[in-house]
Amino acid sequence: MKNTIKSVIVIIASVIGFGANAQTKSESNSLLWEVSGNGLSKSSYLYGTVHMMCESDFKISDKTQKAFVKTSMLALELDLDDPSELATMQQSATTKEPLSKTLSPQEYQKLDALLKEKTGQGAATFDNYSLTTIMSLVMFKSLGCPPKMYELEFMKMAAAQNMEIIGLEKFNEQIDFLDKAYPAHELIDQLKYYDSDYFKQLITIYNSEQLDAIYQMTNDPKFMDAEDKKWLLDIRNKNWAGKMPELMKKESVFFAVGAAHLAGEKGLIMLLRKAGYTVKSVMN
To answer: Are 149 and 54 in contact (CB under 8 A)?
Structure first.
């Protein structure tokens, strides 16, 4: 049950933060970045994840494994080993009031039609689930295969090395940012965009580490406008970049967060550079 909760929450994280920013064209495409300088005695590493993909498509590159074993702490968006966090996640999967009462008749009718199209079951089946949980389940269904998740795999690797695992934010914070970015009708609208073709194209681009192409695909206005980007990416990036220096000063850290958070003028790569660090792509 505990692993099931973790899996669902990682999928929810993909709802909250996978739209990608534009990567500066002069940068080499890479999912892995080394952070050094500015008084650090050891390098830390920043890795961009996609939160869910088919097991058959999943891979952790040699360069990523080499970087991982050099570190002594794993920092994820959320600490999925924290019992209190897992309890909060489990509680948030359902709602106090059924959706049939909290949504407008028009919203509920639209949700019902989309769920029948995507899952073969109407809204009544999901009436006591949160919209975020419903979206995660639709994404899971659209993937159409047994999933594998970077966060959970990195946690296994960390356990094998007796590494400490931390979260850069709390689950309640993630949900708060999502609520500010997407009112109910917008979250329902997004359900129609997730299908098997979407994931096939996304994973092909991701596995070839084409951050520019990921941007073109996932930062489409139908997924994220300027206001959404502020809440889902920019503010969270600033919060995380404020926590990273103290962590890196103490030990070598492997940061693994959604690929959306790495690039752009307000992305983690640029924020760390502005803070005085050398951040360079790792190609091999």
So the answer is: no
The answer to whether 35 touches 44, Cβ cutoff 8 Å, is yes
Per-residue model confidence as pLDDT tens for the chain (284 residues): 444 455 555 555 555 554 433 344 445 689 999 999 999 999 999 999 987 889 999 999 999 999 999 999 999 999 988 999 989 988 888 999 999 999 999 999 999 999 999 999 999 999 999 999 998 889 888 888 888 999 999 999 999 999 999 999 999 999 899 888 888 998 899 888 888 888 888 889 899 997 767 766 767 777 788 888 899 889 999 999 999 999 999 999 999 998 888 888 888 999 999 999 999 999 98
Residue 39: both structure tokens together: 């008084």
Helix boundaries (H) for the chain: 2-16, 62-69, 83-92, 99-102, 105-119, 131-143, 150-160, 171-181, 184-190, 196-207, 211-218, 226-229, 235-250, 268-274
Answer for the pair 266, 230: CB distance below 8 angstroms, yes or no.
Answer: no
49's tokens: 């994840």
Residue 56 token pair: 């058959």
Residue spans of the domains in the chain: they are 2-94+129-281
How far apart CA 219 and CA 33 sit, in angstroms, is 21
- Cβ atoms within 10 A of the Cβ of 87, count? 12
Start-to-end C-alpha separation, the chain: 38
